[in-house]
Specification:
Blueprint: H1 2-18, E1 21-23, E2 30-32, E3 40-44, E4 50-53, E5 56-58, E6 65-69, E7 77-83, E8 89-95, E9 103-106, H2 111-114, H3 121-134, E10 155-158, E11 163-166, E12 169-173, E13 176-180, E14 186-188, E15 193-202, E16 206-212, E17 217-227, E18 234-235, E19 240-244, E20 254-261, E21 264-266
Parallel strand pairs: 9-11
Antiparallel strand pairs: 1-2, 2-3, 3-6, 4-5, 4-7, 7-8, 10-13, 11-12, 13-20, 14-19, 15-16, 15-18, 16-17, 17-19, 17-20, 20-21
Amino acid sequence: MKLVIVRRLFAFLSIILAMVSTAFADGSYSLRGEFIQGGIIIGKAPSGTKVFLNKEAIKVSEQGNFVLGFGRDAEGQVEVSIHKPDGDILTENYEIKKRDYAIQRIEGVAQKYVSPPKEVADRISRDATIVAKARTSNFDEPMYASGFIWPAQGRISGVYGSQRVFNGVPKRPHFGVDVAAPVGTPIAAPAPGIVTLAEPDLYYSGGTVILDHGHGLSSTFLHMDSVTVEVGDYLNQGEKLGTLGATGRVTGPHLDWRMNWFKERVDPETLVGPMPQ
């Protein structure tokens, strides 16, 4: 167990140490984060700047805030272009760094969640539809720019990108960070946001909330015991949105915190420091 903890700590520190701020030549355009699989880049530029990722326009706030995200299996180079208000164009290419992902084997999961019975197929399809709809929002306010905190405190029991095997059956990679803690532990907004989904009982994820932080960046909270917010609520950082639980497909109480940048599944742990003691 100690060896596993040391390896995980080393891997996490490697990511944190690489999270340095970079700036373009004139120093007025900054990018905070790391160009890595699952990485999230938070940028700042003067008002009136236009930003392009691989020649695709990226939303920029009136204050010059913008965000970029890269999926679990992203690879190769990406091009970031800054179109300054005076007409000058600054372009940089960044290599997406690869990560090593762990294989996690979990036994004892109820068979109905490993291979769901046919009679729940409609419910699963409905759940997927409402979750996808909740992630189509694209609010103008850069609520993510204020920074992020852990939404709950506890033991980290699962990490982004790992491949889970339930009862010997390989499943999709895990796209969140799991925080194990007692049922009823408060869950707080990691950053300001607007609630776009508040469901007490989805088939796989149980109590589920999606909090949109603006510009396509959203947090999803799974397996909640209680949901205390409604769609449309605005939450400040630290405000309670519900409690941690063991609903849906789980083997014990924990919070599965996930993040999306539009359709890209990104790693929330890259935005926060070590778990508070």
